[in-house]
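Entry 12.
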Amino acid sequence: MAAREELTDRLARRWRRLNGPSRHAGIDLARGLAVVGMLAAHLLTTTDLVWSDPATWSGVVDGRSSILFATLAGISIGLVTGGRTPVRGPALARAATTLALRALIIWVLGVLLMATGVPVYVILPAYAILFLLVLPLLTLGPAVLFGIAALIGVIGPVVYALIMMLPIWDVPGVEDVSLLLGWHYPFVVWAAFVVAGLALGRLELRSASVQAAMLLIGGGLALLSYGLAPAEGGRMPGLPASASLLETVWSADPHSSGMLEVFGSGGFAIAVTGACLLLCRPWWSRAARPGAWLGPVGWAALPVRAVGSMPLTAYTAQIVGWAIAAALLLGDTSDLTGFRALDPFGAFVFWTALGCTAWALLFGRGPLEWVTARLSGRASRRSAPEARG
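Predicted 3D structure (tokens):
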């Protein structure tokens, strides 16, 4: 009897952790969509997105899923460092140390995932560097952070284009260094997404007006930026070769790191996050139902929210599962065409959602999230006296 009561109590605690009012269900939903979107970008053969052609809408996952992932990383950093009231003093030193150590752990994990030979650009090394870049900004308010994000969005694409025009890319070993730096997601540009996310994390994300503003402003920014993109895949036809810098900068193509991609896909990420927060709200009056905090969509999206509650575990499990399956079935983990021909996307989504939901309800925090938190938290506590001194 005691064992049954203990199990019941444990399950109830896990249920409250995943579904209770202290958790941002909409953020979990957006993170889950980002993880599934990145998996789709890897495993599905998509076409260039043309918004007026529904047959091409699967292309929405290209580039935008990883940008959504980066923006949500910034939101998470904002939430764990005080939300609307940024931590200061010794608490700030501990938070910064913890984030720096998490960055190191994530970078090492990313390198290990690259060693599997799976033919994807692993985002974790870039993720780790972006964590480090925002550490000096943790005490800033949302207005200043949005301004910095916009400034990076304007200057970053120019810096990236100039770097890509340097002759260093033919030097032996540079490609390997770029992989270790996550240069497919260049930090000189992608810092804009994390800083914008940090700014969002400094807002009252439970406010319906804030959520609606995210949807409307983010959507408007996306429409404006994509609308300014030249025809023919975001390129500027008819320009001479000397205009290649302008072509690169003024691009909305996925993974181009062009200015229009930054503001278009960045706005798209903000709009999706706002939409997820709104969808997870109750559709009825809180005054009539004081205990209501999660609407029908939030409950229906429980498996996706479970994936979003442990994005590091879900992302890593997908890469490792891919490597194992490709090695067993194809004898080659790097055979992208062969693996896509197996049509594994549906199975990967099903087992990822099922596994994350079961783990969240039985054990709570994802295993890699738990390990990362324990290692970084323990190390930051040990270094706290030095930080205070």
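Annotation: Residues 233-243, 384-389 have pLDDT under 50 and may be disordered. The radius of gyration is 21 Å.
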